[in-house]
Design a protein that fits this description.
Elements (H helix, E strand, L loop, with lengths): L1 E6 L2 E4 L4 E9 L6 E7 L6 E6 L6 E3 L7 E6 L4 E6 L8 E8 L16 E2 L3 E6 L1
Parallel strand pairs: 2-11
Antiparallel strand pairs: 1-3, 3-8, 4-5, 4-9, 5-6, 7-8, 9-10, 9-11
């Protein structure tokens, strides 16, 4: 089992930046791919970004490409999401998700491709 805890959420003005972190604990010796999803009020949860366990590949939703950067520090068991040029439509609860070998090879972009989830952190972008 892997436990995930997000941090870094808060209120930010449009055009500003915010850095989210996802800290993993538990069976962190397992190689796990990690992703960020988000859910805005009244909407379904959607994919934001993902990174391979080695950090060798990254994936982004079109809506955040060029503005958000996902990275990881395996020595610290953390994955970060640097969010720049934030827009009001980025307002959402951001969730960290991870998967081990059992789901590796499934889609990066859907919730069912991940079997570990954090509780989420709220990001609010004011206009």
């Amino acid at each position: 089992q892997v436990q995930l805890v997000e941090s870094g959420g808060g209120l930010v003005q449009a055009g500003g930046s915010r850095r989210l972190s996802c800290a993993a604990s538990g069976r962190t010796s397992i190689r796990y791919d990690t992703a960020w999803f988000r859910q805005a009020p009244g909407k379904e949860r959607e994919f934001v970004a993902a990174i391979m366990w080695s950090g060798g590949s990254t994936y982004y939703a079109d809506s955040v490409k060029g503005r958000f950067t996902i990275s990881r520090d395996n020595a610290k068991n953390t994955v970060n999401l640097q969010m720049n040029s934030l827009k009001p439509e980025d307002t959402a609860v951001y969730y960290c998700a991870a998967r081990g070998d059992s789901l590796r090879g499934t889609s990066w972009y859907v919730e069912k491709g991940y079997d570990y989830w954090g509780q989420g952190t709220q990001v609010t972008v004011s206009s």
